[in-house]
Design a protein that fits this description.
By secondary structure, the protein is an alpha/beta fold. The chain contains twelve helices and seven strands. It has a four-stranded antiparallel β-sheet. Helix 1 crosses helix 3, helix 2 packs across helix 3 and helix 9 packs antiparallel against helix 11.
């Protein structure tokens, strides 16, 4: 299917939705289709839902949800995934989600990172300067913000009004300078302080407890972050990652490895979450909000966990192309989880 044919297909889907009474809009004369941008997936993407949202009187994502069923059943369209505010990402020829999975596995834990531009002779005004008070949560948040900014190619310098050396040993944080903020630089990182000392939780649980809530929310400091059960979001994220790594080991024992390919039963929520990862990283950097990454990882884990038990052959089944493709998707999910945890300064163990 050519881009021109796909554009006509998108317009036909709009017309069918209008005829069915699901949308009350004038069918436009043209639908733009183009290769998906950052955060997208598949072969082509269209912003038709964003274009129709205002005349339809509905949010763009809801318009996209209405249009998706009218596209999925069309000959030549293998799958349609919704990402961002309402982009329709279209895969052709039965290849979904192979392209997305291949991209993730090729990039590894750097999937979603921007090209680094930290040349040593960069001008001084290109450095992002973060300053925080003498507060453990502020320092941890600043440390995570710096990691995220650097993954997007920024030069970063973190200073604090005070710093305790035990914070480095306990939580892996560091600053580039200690002292009052320069007169020209206001305090840029000032989250609500933690109500109790998080250090007894250990590095990973303490960092999660401080980073998972938004900066304006008071974090909870308690043993719930150490619980090995589904009610603990950190456990779900790390468990999903460990399960994906275990599947790779088990598949090797069965004599096969991952190979991106069509996955007819792939959860749409998982594909959307994986495809949205680059946009989440960029938004977390732009808004100085590592909590966005933490919540995104929970969404990836929650979408992946129900899918993982179906990856390996069952009973007397022999490994097939479908199993290799499912394993590749599981490995892609694990890769995104590992990369996100690393940016938060949290370990992603292969065994849990």
């Amino acid at each position: 299917m050519t881009p021109a044919e796909l554009s006509s297909t998108v317009l036909h889907a709009v017309r069918r939705a209008v005829d069915a009474g699901e949308l009350d809009v004038t069918v436009p004369a043209r639908a733009v289709v183009a290769p998906p941008g950052p955060g997208g997936c598949g072969d082509y993407a269209t912003n038709i839902a964003l274009q129709l949202a205002r005349p339809a009187g509905q949010p763009p994502y809801r318009v996209a949800e209405v249009l998706r069923p009218y596209l999925v059943g069309v000959d030549g369209v293998a799958d349609v995934v919704l990402t961002g505010p309402g982009f329709l990402n279209i895969s052709l020829g039965g290849a979904a989600p192979a392209a997305l999975v291949e991209e993730i596995l090729s990039a590894g834990t750097r999937y979603g990172h921007a090209d680094a531009s930290d040349a040593p002779d960069a001008p001084d005004n290109s450095v992002v300067r973060l300053h925080c008070p003498h507060d453990l949560r502020a320092v941890v948040v600043a440390d995570a913000v710096a990691r995220v900014l650097r993954c997007q190619g920024a030069l970063v310098r973190v200073t604090a009004e005070g710093f305790d050396r035990e914070w480095t040993a306990a939580l892996g944080v560091r600053v580039d300078g200690v002292g009052p903020a320069p007169a020209s630089l206001p305090v840029t990182v000032r989250p609500v302080p933690a109500p109790a000392d998080p250090l007894p939780l250990g590095r990973d649980a303490a960092r999660w407890a401080l980073l998972h809530p938004a900066a304006h929310d008071r974090p909870r400091i308690g043993d719930e972050h150490l619980a090995q059960r589904e009610g603990n979001p950190l456990f779900r994220v790390r468990y999903a990652h460990a399960r994906s790594r275990a599947l790779t080991r088990n598949a090797a024992d069965l004599g096969f490895t991952a190979e991106p390919g069509p996955v007819p039963d792939a959860p749409q929520e998982l594909l959307a979450a994986l495809g949205d990862h680059p946009r989440v990283l960029a938004a977390a950097a732009a808004h100085r909000a590592p909590d966005r990454i933490a919540r995104h990882l929970v969404a990836v884990a929650d979408a992946a966990l129900p899918f993982l038990p179906a990856v390996l052959p069952r009973g007397g089944e022999k490994p097939s192309a479908a199993h290799r493709a499912r394993l590749a998707l599981a490995e892609a999910a694990g890769t995104v989880l590992a990369g996100g945890l690393t940016l938060l300064g949290i370990d992603a163990p292969d065994h849990l």
